[in-house]
Amino acid sequence: MANGAILPRESGISDRPMRDAVPFISPESLQIEIELPHKGKMIGMGIPKGITVIVGGGYHGKSTLLKALEQGVYNHIAGDGREYVVADATGMKIRAEDGRSILHTDISLFINHLPAGQDTVDFSSENASGSTSQAANLIEAMEAGAELLLLDEDTSATNFMIRDKVMAKLVSDEKEPITTLLRHIRGIYKTMGISFIIVVGSSGDYLSVADLVLQLDHYKVKDVTKEAKEICEQCQIAGQYAEKEVCMPEFSRKLKPIKSARRKLKSMGTDTVLIDRESIDVRYLEQLSESGQTTALAYMMGWILDHVTKEEDIQEFIENMYKLIERKGMAAVIPANYSAGHPVLPRKQELYACLSRYRSAKIVKKYM
């Protein structure tokens, strides 16, 4: 994140930089220098791999910082203010999404021993709860190759993020199907090398698993890692959640053909993809930044459904699809006579997410 970057936007419906905003300045302890071919030396904040926790009072800029990092997967035009805010290109924002469908996803890392005895290694639901949807969103992001996951306490399911000692005394672990992210976060990083950036305002236990703690104070960023570690020692929570390898899910979903004489494909803003009469709700894919991406998602979903003629491994099929696009351009997957919109190539992560939310998709679990 370059010094001088303007992170806040003009309004919730504008991408223009806010006037008279406080420019971003890196804490000295995190300052790095990068040599750019046509710009020379750039100085700013480098966030290392690992688990980063962002704290601070309400309205001090925590979510604004995270939002800038979310959009750092894209290049920005001159004058945007975030031209040199750059994040891992595979980074995925993860949130709760009540009511979404889940299709044959292994969420057993976080959800187990459901009262009805439902299998969470091969889990499906037409109406997922907040915690279950967030668990599925995280696992599907891993399946899509995300190496950075971004979360905000405000848009997360509380019981997915934390479970305090008082509640654990009343409801024992044996009676609680949900294993919180807090318990597994260090193990996920150790086992898969996936980094996390998490905004928290009240979940103090996350300080104990953090490699880096940033505090927002009147829109200025401070490195308070040392102070956070001292507080964890005083509160006797340091080392409570050990970094141990976890048993990661197998990404072994397959897609079966869906027969259709003719498909109607359409999109509505950045919220909805329409396939025939079914709406795919993509409004919680917060990194979709323009309607052209949902237009492309509609056409790409149609291409997938037209070209899956036998049972296909989803990871392999989508990987090959993007290799085709690299060789021949988007014209390879967008119909020549497309009728509406200006398609803009979405990332693999959003295509995975769109397919996973398509209730009519014939997704099955492939057992090894």
TrEMBL record:
Superkingdom to which the source organism belongs: Bacteria
Domain MRB1590-like C-terminal: residue ranges: 264-363
Span of domain ATPase of the ABC class C-terminal: 2-240
InterPro entries membership: ABC_ATPase_C, ABC_ATPase_put, MRB1590-like_C, P-loop_NTPase
UniProt name for this protein: Predicted ATPase of the ABC class
Organism (species): Anaerobutyricum hallii
